[in-house]
Amino acid sequence: MTAVTVTPSTNIQTVQKFFEAQYAGEFDHAFQAYAQLNFQWVVASGHNAALRAMIPWVPLMTALIEQRTAQRLADL
User: Fold this and answer.
1) Which of 5, 21, 48, 63 could bond 30 through an S-S bridge, CB–CB 3.0 to 4.6 Å?
2) SS3 letters for 8-63?
3) What tens digit of pLDDT does each residue of 3-43 get?
């Protein structure tokens, strides 16, 4: 399979499109289109609000964690 050449204007767009493709289940496309020679793994986003904002499922997971935490505190 030949890698697709994509030239987003910024690294942020590349990461965003990579995560969007993965979230959509398009794993092969994500790596073929956005993981180029200088690709580096993102291992954490805990101290990177801009990166968390680009990952589609983070706001949903954050809301779920906050709801569960509030419920546990209410149950005490």
Assistant:
1) 21
2) CCCHHHHHHHHHHHHHCCCHHHHHHHHCCCCCCCCCCCCCCHHHHHHCCCHHHHHH
3) 555 554 677 788 888 888 988 999 899 888 888 777 776 66
